[in-house]
Each structure stands twice: as structure tokens, then as C-alpha cells.
Design brief:
alpha/beta
Amino acid sequence: LFFFVSNFLLSAPMKALAQEVVSTFSSRLACLGLVVKELTGDMQLSKAEVEAANVLVTTPEKWDVVTRKGGSDGSLATKCKLVLIDEVHLLADERGAVIESVVARTQRLVESAQTTVRLVALSATLPNFKDVAHFLRVNPVRGLFHFGPEYRPVPLEQTFMGLTEKNRVRLAAKQNECAFEVCLDALRRGHQVMVFVHARKDTVRTAQAIRDFAIKAGCAEEFLCGKPESPNAEAYSLFGKMVDRSRSTELKELFPSGFMVHHAGMLRPDRSLSERAFSAGAARVLVCTATLAWGVNLPAHSVIIKGTEVYDPAKGKPMDLSMLDVMQIFGRAGRPQFDASGEATMITSHAALPRYLQLLGHQAPMESNFLKALPDHLNAEVSSGTVTSVDEAVTWLSYTYLFVRMLKNPLAYGLPYEARDEDPQLRVARFDKVTAAAKVLDEQRMIRFDPRSGNLAATDLGRTASHFYIQNESIGTFNQRLSPAMSDAAALDALAHAAEFKQLKTRPEELAEMDKLRRLCPLDIRSPLEEPAGKVAVLLQCYVSRVRPQSFTLVSDTNYCAQNGGRVCRALFEVALRRGQSGLATLFLRLARSIDRKVWWWETPLRQLQEAYKFPDSVIKNLEGKQSGDVGRLLEMDAREVGQLIHFERLGGKVLQACRSLPRLSCQVAIQPVTRTVLRVSLTLKADFEWRHGGGSGGGAEPFWVWVGDSEGDYDAGMGGGHMYHSELFMLQRPKRGHRDEESVLAFTIPIAEPLPAQYYVHVRSDRWCGLDEVHPVSFKHLVLPEIHPPHTDLLDLTPLGVGALGNPGFEAIYLAKGLTHFNPVQTQVFHTLYHTDRNVLLGAPTSSGKTLVAELAILRMLNLRAAQHADPRQAEKGQHSAAVYIAPLKALARERLKDWKAKLGGGLGLTVVELTGDVTPDANALRRADVIITTPEKWDGVTRGWRNRDYVRSVRLVIIDEIHLLGEDRGPVLEVIVSRMRYMSAKMEQRVRLLGLSTALANAHDLADWLGIDPRPGRGMYNFRPSVRPVPMEVHIRGFPGPHYCPRMATMNKPTYSAILEHSPKHPVLVFVASRRQTRLTALDLISFCAAADEPKQFLRGVGEEEVEAVAATCKDPALKHTLVYGVGLHHAGLCDHDRNTVEELFVNGRIQVLVCTSTLAWGVNFPARLVVIKGTEFFDGEKGRYVDFPVTDVLQMMGRAGRPQFDDKGVSCVFVHAPKKNFYKKFLYEPFPVESHLRDVLHNHLMAEVCGGTVKSKQDAVEYLTWTYFFRRLLVNPSFYHLDDASTQGVQEYLLALVDKVLDDLQDQGCVEVGASFAVDDEDGEAGALVDSVGPTTAGRIASYYYLDYRSVGIIKEGLLELDAKSSQEPASMNLCLELAAVLCACHEFSELPVRHNEDELNAELLAQLKQRHREAGVAQGNTSGPAAEAGAEAGRGRGVDGG
């Protein structure tokens, strides 16, 4: 049962052993239905394959990489409940540092996540097994099992031979002779022999030497297996045919003599062939390197170690074979299922013999090698966020095997023997080691280390190194060698100098072939061939050029270079991206793709599909020979022309088909100036190829890199490149079956400077495919920058006014009852204009500046006027009722304002306050009696469309628009139409309607004031204070987090969130804003885990007993909330029921819980107090677009405004965590105002239709005049380039507006909403015939759409659907289900297009659809399409009808 509910991991020391384990486990666990997968450098798995696997077999290095990265792979660390570590005695090897790092990371994860992961380690007999058990946190009584050599299933006879020969040549010959004698003796007794040597070339030499000794002694036949009387003759014959087909000349030479060889330099098929032949008995002697002892489980009766000197490239000299290797090799002697005993022979020098005999009897304890790799592993922890200071690093070091051995043997780690006496836990020593490593990393710019505070902060360079597993030595080399001006050859040379390749020294016998290969390289070789860099540069070029070396050692080294070269090159590409160097990024991206694809960027891209489409070499050569392999040019031809071009007419169509499957993007670029220094870029991207299975675009997604720079890239790559202003990875998702490719829009901002450059370049480059890059120039020739914004209003140093200035005891009482005796500085400065004049007012001030009270002052002014009007007999006779309208952006804010004003204005002054929203719609009489109407933009828009027929609309004298800066957001056009209509209504009725706009600080307040009819002169109604004018001072901390994937990026923000709470608000309330309900739960659980790790699990509970809060939590229905409340952390989102929401709000407001994790909508709703606000991410998932998009800046400002409320705090702190590339954008616009632009142009159809139906617009000229009342018209004149207006002259503006009106009216007429009639004459002022204009009138369908607030596109859909129903009913009346058909038309309406289909909801919709007896007529759903908005709406309708449709 355990295996079915969780993954488990087996860490094998080598890839060869991993392959064997996968094969064994797959067969043995198949009966349990368990899926076993290999996850190594050779075997990559998709996310789906990883999630489907129950058992993962991997290497330590691969698991280290996976757990470093986080994200879809990183989540495996939490899913794995069992980790098996094979050959744990590798701790004494250089690779042991990786095992230490992985185990330490796993154990810290167990503690922080409060989860359980079982560690099981397997090993050969260890001298200091108790130390390893202590390192693994094993219970020494119940979990430690140690079995000595006496427990070996097959007794082992060990023989040690010490040779006294001093001459190395004669010593090697004597070793071969001894090996021959031992082999012959074993063979005569019918046993197989494995001879272990320590160099690849020595395997063949030793086998040849033993064969020659046998021939000389006349006993060569005893080595053969192919004799007719031999029991293995059949196997010999079978494998002999396989050897004949092998490309290995050594195997072909040695196999007939009964020998096989095995080493890492051989090709994998040849290695496998040697293993299988020896296992089957087809060969009697196998000569191999020591790696076989660790890899494949291939035992033999007799094992020989020939020589014990091993060349160590790190030290540059021969070293003695370690005792662990000796024991591992000896462990291959004796086959448990076949032999009763085993024989192991060591042939060594006489000088080394005593050492091995001593070690055999008294093995030295295994020591740690972690110190050498400490900088790299420390960087990995800092980059992943698990270590943020030296103190935490010191604690992290206590989880390693290094710490265990430092306590036992401090001398081995450079510590004095008495160190433990002075410091029992060696904290000072650990501090020194960590500090030294941190200094190394700081010098390489991989981390930022502050020696005074001990803080460790990750850098982009360090994260890149950790992500791509790059050594710190390589980073130091890159820092020295990388420069913006590099050629292709210089870039390749920098890559070849990476420390990952330093062991690839050129052997003397390789020089001749290397010199030949060098002549075939298309790029210059900058380093000597004798150095590793020169060798790597040659081998990489040979690999890409598809040139195969002859020497097997070079073949092996080439494969190693290819495997690691792509990874290192990708790291260098990331470095160039982070530095913003466009040319350098181009160099390394195309080099990385060339290594991955084995195709140069100047070759035809069709080479990448040659194998998939089986193109002959002649076709490719013809394309490249005539330089006609450009895909764009080929796509312009037909199949016959392509066939003629390649001299193979039959393949012309196939070549075209391949061209169409190469992933390319069509890109349309639009630019809009936001300010004089910021440019908004919108890219419309769409697939310009055909998705196919197999060749070409066969995956589920295609990645593309998109960046904007001031260089063309390819041309400038080696000439200094250029600067990159923005970059991001765009994933083009494959459309679902039956769907078409949809356009995707990428929008971002980039800086511009004056004088304007001639142009920028938009680069669209495939991440995987060579030769498909596109560069789009963006000209600034006709770009018109907006004017510099005027200065802000200065906050005057005025004496605060007391509430007595109201001059009305009733008014004063409502504020005195709340404890307010004086107005704040902002309220004091605007008091006279608000309370003693009737001017329109625009107030721009930061959140929490007291703008709500300013609105109340305007209402009180209206009440004073109304009282004066009733006191005047001449005015009283008119009997007109005056009302105020408060427009809130959200229903939650409207409800809060209703609750507040009902108590303050209703209870204190006896006013009638009503709510008019989508949830509450009073009757007309209630609205006529209302003094204050609280509504939302959409609802007031719908009501005012018929203002001529609604007297309660015409009685409005004050309109308060809260958060008027939302004009620049998606819902802004509705606000714009409301204000324009109210101003138009006021002008037509000749009756003043006062407008009050409340906003945050604005950049272009003068434009907004001009639109509202406000005099911009000081003190006349326009007040636009700086963002810093805030009653409660607020600190803002903006921190960038890297990583392209949303979920892992959010996970890395959790610990900084916890740290921010401890630093800025350890005892005061904290609000943590996240983007989704799921994130509220995950964030809260992580915060609780961090508290538990600090031994303070209940530190966020305040002033309440655990029993009391547990009793309250027990009443909650949401299980996550029920769990988190007990720890003082609350959740708040729209998915909570009213009881749960009210409960958590009450606990937080009353200070019972300290932390509230909530979604962003809370910022606009309830006014909660908080000392600290943490905005954890500024993106949310847009269901309609199917990707993550940014929050509007106004939303971020609103969330920040919740920090430091005046009535609660004297200080506020706001921490904004953002995606790293967007950090500069938020630094700019969170400290200086963002200009407000109009978006009416994009949604003009519905609003113009409403004005036509309302009688405001009767002709095209009326439509143009209507537009002049809008904010859109004001901004069109000020920032024409933003609205794509090239000619800003009066004539140009008129033509632009007429063209816009024509297009909108044409679209409305096409959908059947309006009728554009024949021209009629308009009389001029003298009564004479005037100009001819086109009449515009509403249709019945248009009136209905306007009345019910329907989208104009829905009118066309409904009209077309009803016509189809009418035709179908006349043809097949009996088979038609009218109710179902009408439901299908309803679901297709445009109103449902924004309904998001959340994660896995398509599966839920499919289940609901299966339960319904009635089926939707819509084709997509009928075919199983349950992922669209129509399906979502249909499923919701089905929920309402019930399972039986009743």
C-alpha cells in the first residue's frame, strides 16, 4: 500500500547501475502494478512520466539537481516518502559530497515541512558505520544493521602479490605474466575471470598480453569457449555474430580468443554486448576498468586487480587505489547462485603491499570530502532560499557527514585536536568554514555576503550556476573571459575553458588525430590542442559537424563534451540574459541549439528533420549548395518548384510539408508611449506552422525566447552586441484537438531615452530549433512622446481644522462620536473647496489619506444646499429632490461603504442610504426617496442609459467616483461613459451635477481635471498630492525573485515572507496578499512549518488560549482554515462560506490571530488593520488568456495601502515580492504616479450602441460629438501615439474619429444592433439646407441588448442561432429538443467568454456532462470538448437542472 500512495527514490551511484536496477525492479515489482522509471542524465522524463512513476531510480547528481530547482521536479522532494541510497560508502569518494548535500536537504525538508521521509542506506562493510548511521539520523538500536565479512554468502579467498620490480615497463610485463598465471589456473578449474585495470587503453593491452602469454605457453585453446564440446558453444556462436556487427575493432580482435574488454570509453551498445557475452559464458576472461565494479552487477568466480596505481587528474600524479575500491572489486568475486567460494587476487608493488594488508585488517574510517565542494553546495542552498545567513549555513552544516567526522577527527579537517574541548559542537569551526566559502562565492559574484550582518543573498549568477550545476571555478573563468564584444570562436573558447572539462587532457596518442580534426572545424581554435580547452573546442565542433573521431577515447570524450557542453552553454546564455547583453545571448543560444541539434546555424533548418522525414543527403546538400535552404523562401514555392530546386521532384511536397512543421511564430508589434521615458510594447504572437506528430513540432508546447534590444543580434553578435531591455520565455501551447491556434498577446514596458534611437529590435528565437530566428525592427520615426507631466500639489503647512468648522451641530456629532476632533492635513487643505463651493473636484492622494471623509464633506455640502433650497420659498415651489451617487469599483467596497454610511449618515443624520448593485436592486420608489445611492460602475451605466425616462437619475446632484484612476484598467471604459453621460445630461438639462473624483496620486491629473470640467489653477478643485503625502509613514521593500515558472517562484517567496514578518512586524498584524485560493492555503501551511522549525508553532496566536481558538476553529467548515487558525494564521478568499469569512475577520480584527493570508480582492473590500503588508507575487492566472498576467499597478497600490492604517498604527511596512524582470518597473511606478490612459476605444461598440438606443446619438456626426465628451478624446490629443494616431493635426484627428465611428457602426450594423440610414439634410442656424449626414437608429435587438446590458456580439450569436432553430424546426420538428437547443445558443453568448476554466475543471465538466441525460448541441461539447467557456457555462446550467435534468 505504501508504494501506491507515494513515490520512492533509489539513488544509485552510477548510471550503469541505475539502468540495471530499473530493469530488475521493473520485472520484480510489475505484479504490484508499480511503475519504475530511470531519471538520469541519459534518461530525461516529462512531468507526466515523473508523476506516473512510483519508483524513480536516479544518481546522486541528478537528484541534487532536481531538488535544487524546485517547481514540477522539485515537488518530488516532498512526494518521495522513501529514499534508498545504494553504495553509501561513496561518502569517502569525491562524489560523496553530493550525497551529503542531498541527505542534508532531505532532512531539513522533513523538519520544515513536517513530513516523513524514510532514509534507507545500503553499503559494503564500513569501518565507521556508526558515524554514517549518525549522519542519516538512524536509531542505533532499531535501525542500524551491520554485518561483517563473516556473513558473506560466498566465502572469499584473498591473495595478495607484491612485486619487487622497480622498472615500470618490466613491472607492467611482470604484472601481466602474474595475471596470466592466475587466469590460467582459474580457467583450468572451469571458472570465469574478471581482470580489473585502471586505464581504458590498458584493458586492450592487458587482454592482448595475456593472450600472447597463452599462445607462447601453448595453452591458448584453454581460453576459448567456441569448441564443439564446450557447454557455451551455442552462446559463443550467437554472440560471435553480434561482435562481427560491432564497430569495435578491439572486440572483433579479442573475442575469438575468449577475451572481452569493458570501459567507459566504449559505446554503450558495445559495453552492453561485453556484459551480456561474459554473463552468458561466451567469453571466459573479461578485462575491465574499476567502474564496472560499481556499475553492473556482473560477478565472476575469480577477480584480479592488476596494479594499484590510479592516475588522479585532480592531483596530476598516480595515487594508490582506495581500500573502498578494493573491497568493491573483491565483492565481485563469487557468484552466490552458482559458486560455493570466490577468489580475489591483488597484484601490486612490494612497497604498497603492507599498506593494503594493514588496511584490510584495520580499515581506516571513512572521511568526508564535503569541504572541497562546500562553496558549490552552499551556493545551491542560498539560491534555493533555504540558507539566508551565516548562522543558518552553520546549522545546515550540522546535517552533513562532515560535521559528524569533524567531531570525531578534527585533525583531518585542519582543526587542532583540542578544538572540541573548547567548542563541543565546533560552532566556531563551522562558522569559519562557511565564512571562507561565502567569501569565495562573493568574489565570484555568485552571492552577496555582508560580513557584518552575516546575511547571504543569492545573485543571478549564483542562481544560474546552481540551476545548471556549474562549478564556482567555471563562473570565475566566465567572469574573466566574457565580454559584450565576442566572436563565435571566442564564445566557444570561453565555453571550453569551463572547469567541467578540465580533466579532458589530450593524450599523446590522440594528438595526431586531433590535428586532423582541427582542420575540419569551421570556427577557429583559440587554445592549444595540448590543453583541455583546445581539445574541447575541437570535439564540440566535430560533434556538431557530424564528424566521428576514429579513436574510441575521443568518441567517449566527444560524447562527454556534448552532454555537458549544452548544459554549460545554456548557463552562459542565462548569464548573458541576466546581464542584458543581446549579442552575447544570441551567440550562446545558437551555440547551445547547435550542440543539441547537431546542426550549425548557417545550415538549412531542414537538417533537423532529415532523419524524421528520411531525406537523402543529396536533398540537403542541394538546399545548402544553392543557399536556398531558407524556410521562408521555400514556403513561397509550390511542390513542383521545390522538387526542381532539389533535383528530386517526387520529394518536393514532402520538403514543403517538413518546412510547414518547423516551429515559427508570426509576430505583430505595437508600441505605445506611457510616459516620456517608458514605452509599452504589445506583441501579438501566433503559430505560423502546422503541429505534427513525430517530425517537427511534435510536442505539447514549443518554447520561444522573446527579447527587445537595440541591436539586430546576428549581425552585431560579434561586434559588441547591444543592450537588452526585456526578455522572457514564451511557451506556445499546442491547441487541443478540434481547436485552432489562437493569438497570444505579450505586453510589457521598456525604458526609452531622449534623443530617441532610430529603432529597437524585437527578437523571436526558438529555444530548441536552429535557423528559425526572426528579428523585427520597431521604428520610432513617427513616435510622438507625451508632454512632461505638471508638478504635484504641494501639501501646505496648515493648522488642522477642527470639526467645528462644519458649523452644524448635527454634522459635528457624527464625527465626534467616532473620536475625530480635527481633520488631517489633506482634508484641511481641500475643506473650503469641498464644503463651501460647488466646484467639481479631483483629489489624488495616497491610500489611507482620508478620502472617504472628503466624499462625506461633499455630501454634507449637498445637504446644506438642499436645506437652503427648502428654506427659500421660490426654490421650494419646484419641489425637486437632490441625491448623491457614490460609485465604488467593487461590490465588496460598496457593501463596506453601505455599512459605514448607514450608521453614520443614516443613523446620525436620518438620511436614506440604499445599495444599487447586481446583488441588490431597489424599486424605483425607493430610489426616488434615497438621499445617497451606493452603486457599481456597470449598474449605474445600465441605469443611466435611460436617464431621460428616469426621474431619480435626473435628480442626482452629486456623483462621487471612488478610485477614478481605474479609468486606465479593464473596467475603466464604463467609468468613462458614466462621467461623460452625467456631464452630457447636466449640459442638456442646464442643471448642475457636481463631480467628485477620488484617486491615488496621478501623473496626468490635469487631463483628468480638464475632462471633469475642473479649473486646474491652485485651489480651484484639482488636488494631486505626491505619493509620499501619507498620514502614516510607510516603508516599501521591493524584492525580485527569478525563475520562469509561477508555482516554484511562489514557493521561494514563503521563507522571505516569514522573515519579513519576524523583522518588520513580529507582534503586530500582518496581511499577506496572494493571487489564488490555492496559494492562500500553501502559503499559510509553509508559514506554520517555519514556525514549527523555529520551535514556536503557535507564535502567531495573540491573547487567546489554545482551547478557545480550537473551539472557534472547530465551527469552521473549510478544512484548511480549520487547521491554520489553531496556529494563528487565517485564510480569506471568496471560496469561504459567510460563517468562515466572518469568523476569520473577527479573529483578525480583534487581534486573536496575527497573520491573515488573503486574495487581492480583500484590498478593495474590508478595511483591515495591518502593520505589515506582504504582496506575494504580482501575477494572477487569467482564465480567458490561459496564462499568468500582471496585476494592475492600481491593485498593487491598493494592497500596499492596507499597511499602516491611521487609526491603528504609527508606521506601516510594505514588502512587494515580484518576478525579477519586473522589479525595475515596480520600483519606478510604485514611487511615482502612473499616467491614466483611456481604453474606451477597445470597447466602444457597446457604449455607442447604448447612446444610439438612448437617443443621444442619431447620426455619425452625433457619434463624433459624443466622443469629444470622453476622456479618450482628451488623451488622444495629448498622447496620440498611444492610440496609434499618426497625424495629430485637427484634420487628422477628425479623420481618425470618423474612421473609428464608421468602423464601430459598421460592426454594430453587421450584428443587427443599429441601422445606418440614408443621408438627410440638417438645417443650419439660418434655416437653410445644411450638410448631408448619415442617420443612425437602433433596432429592436439593439434596444433589448442595451436594456439587458448584453454584448453586441451576443446579439449576432442569438440572431443567427434563432434563425438556425427556425430552419431546423421546419425541417425536423419531431427530433428537436427546443429547450436544449436554446440552452446551446445561450452558452455560446459572448458574456461567457471570460468565464475561466480553472485547473482540472475540464475533467469535472466532463463528469457532469456524463451525468446529464440531455446533451448539449454544441459540437465542441458533443465531441468531448469540456475545456471552453461554453462548456463551463453549460455544465453550470446542468448543475442547476440536476442529474436527471428535472
